[in-house]
Amino acid sequence: MGEPLLIAQAIAIPSGVAVLAYLVVGLVIGVESMGVPLPGETTLIAAALLASQQHHLKIEFVILAAAAGAIIGDSIGYFIGRKAGRRLFERLGKRFHHFSEDRIVRAEKYFHKYGVWTVFFGRFVALLRIFAGPMAGMLRMHYPRFLAANAAGGIAWATTIGVVAYKIGDNADQIFGRVSVGALIAVAVVAVALYVVHKVRKRRREEAEPVPEAAATESADV
């Protein structure tokens, strides 16, 4: 048995406290999204397993709680990062190895290159899922753009992970070990493709721009 199933068995939910279970899912994922390394995805899988094996939880509400936690947590993390700046990551680096200088630098590069796409696809990657909100705030990404990518990524992630775990049941934890790698490869391929398209379009625009008359006159005089 994998970790998500063990958690599910350990927290079998009586019908009277189903609401508490939804709150726990949203809270764990929300705190993780704020920048604290908690097992958010494992909690979502465990809740989805419970929903598939018992009638106390509804998968629709599990997904709703997870998506809400992701969106709200990321937004709080955004404003924390915006206010605290680089100091926040320096302090976290002293307490959590997840925030090592090397990982922060790599996350920054992703944000500078791919912007809001990092927020969207980062929801499917463990470390970026923790970094996304605070990092976007620190880099002062335009909040409406961040919120749109954050909401879309949170809903897509919660729905995908929740539904697959619900359908697959006991084998969800084994499959997600492979999906995590697959998701990372997919993100890299899409990001590289977008970057190449951006570069090609930029070069074409530069080539299509007319030469200023003054510059053309100077060239002719020479």
Distinctive features:
222 residues; mainly alpha; disordered C terminus; membrane; transmembrane helix; transmembrane
Description:
There is one protein chain. The chain has 222 residues and is mainly α. It has one domain. Helices cover 81% and strands 0% of the residues. The chain has 11 helices and no strands. Helix 3 packs across helix 9, helix 4 crosses helix 8 and helix 6 crosses helix 8. It is globular, with a radius of gyration of 22 Å.
What fraction of residues sit in β-strands?
A: under 5%
Question: What structural category arises from helix and sheet content?
Answer: mainly alpha
Stretches where pLDDT is under 50 for at least 5 consecutive residues are: 211-222
Q: Please tell me the total number of domains.
A: 1
Rounded Rg? 22 Å
User: How are helices and strands ordered from N to C?
Assistant: HHHHHHHHHHH
Shape: globular
Give the N-terminus to C-terminus distance in angstroms. Answer: 79 Å
Residue share in helix? over 70%
Strands, total number: 0
Annotation field: number of helices = 11
Q: Could you describe the largest sheet, including whether it forms a barrel?
A: none
Question: Please, what is the average pLDDT?
Answer: 75
Membrane topology: Multi-pass membrane protein
Subcellular location: Cell membrane
Pfam families: VTT_dom
Organism: Kribbella soli
